[in-house]
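pasting for the record
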Amino acid sequence: MSRLSSAALPQLRGAAKPAYDRDATEIGVVHFGPGAFHRAHQAFYFDELLARDPRWAISAVSLKSPGVRDALEPQDGLYTLVELEAETKLRVIGAIREVLVAPETPSRVLARLASPHVRLVTLTITEKGYCLDGAGVLDSAHPDVFHDLTAPDEAPKSAIGWLVAGLALRRAAGLPGLTVLSCDNLADNGVRLRNAVQAFAGALDAGLAAWIEAECRFPRTMVDSITPATDDALRARVLAATGVEDAWPIQREAFVQWVVEDVMRPDAPDLAPVGVSLTDDVGGWERAKLRLLNGPHSTLAYAGLLRGHTTVAEAMNDPELAGFVRAMMLEDIAPTLTPPAGLDLHAYAEAVLKRFRNPAIRHQLAQIAWDGSQKLPFRILGTIADALGAGRSVDRLVVPLAAWMRFVEMRTREGEKIVDPLAGPLAEVATAGGGVERFLALTSVFPSTLAADPRFRRPLEAAYARLGADPTTALSAA
């Protein structure tokens, strides 16, 4: 049995291969955090770009674990991407030319950051990787940040420390700055990253901070694609399809989206031809995702669970529920949005519905239902407030809230733990008998002005009553 590698590519079957000469490519991107999402998302886009421009291969840097390096190094950085759809597609991604483990080879990481060929840094390090405090600014007391600030002659431990160390080397060498793209789901990610880098640099060298401000760009971004974890079943599937063993293949849905604020440096890659949306309004795209994707997702979760479904695709096979969600998206949510240039709300809504119906993705409704007290204010309440402000009905928009209330009561009756930061107070509400009045008293979820508004309360109470009487027919009256 052959292992995936450059030498094994000729014998590979059933998968698309890199459409370029890998040996002719040049590393122009340093990426921190080469986990599954990066390899399914940004590396996919750069794989497309390399067929047009060979200057944008990736040096992937793991900040701690050698796992990705150990899996991909024997494979020459190659891995299989499996696009999950009714008709599954496989392709080998060749964009990653090297994987470095920062604590093991700090000099190589710094050399890459200081290379004149590198003009872009990307990051997928999760929210905690930015070492921010509760106010969203750099936490100088964070152990990794504290180490990097007090021991600047040692190898950094934080992503911010590595970035600033690399930028300091570029400044000393007379090289230009970099475009730095945070690709994590963090509100105003580019702004927060820039502020953290500036704060760190300013604590070391005010001149360096001023140079970074003048020379570097930190665009906001938005990313989207469901990426299930790799398991042995996926490895076996790839082996059967290709005839080649892959230690760490990646799977994701066919839908993939990358939105980047159009403020990159002139020497940054031209990403638009490979499907990246460049915009001056990332916030508009984020609101559309939050309201047209995340809000309906929660609706499917709570209403679907009440109706006996377990996955998103299963819930979408319920004609009444699917029709309700579609009507809510197009008739109630879309009118609250002002789309940025390039975003067709109707087409986006239909694309979301197609994603929900994807039979190859088993997205558990119970998992989506977690943390409702934290998610619903952002996913639903803003839409409701805008609809009320415009004098529109909220009869459908209150249904996910009523379904959440009934879901909490159901889980409490069944003796199941509620996965939510407010699990204790929610269980107390449900144990006391539930009811709209008790839930609305949770002021950390429902603003008091909204809770007291009869235009909101009356339809919410009606939806709650319908769902309590018969959740299998309650949607038809909404």
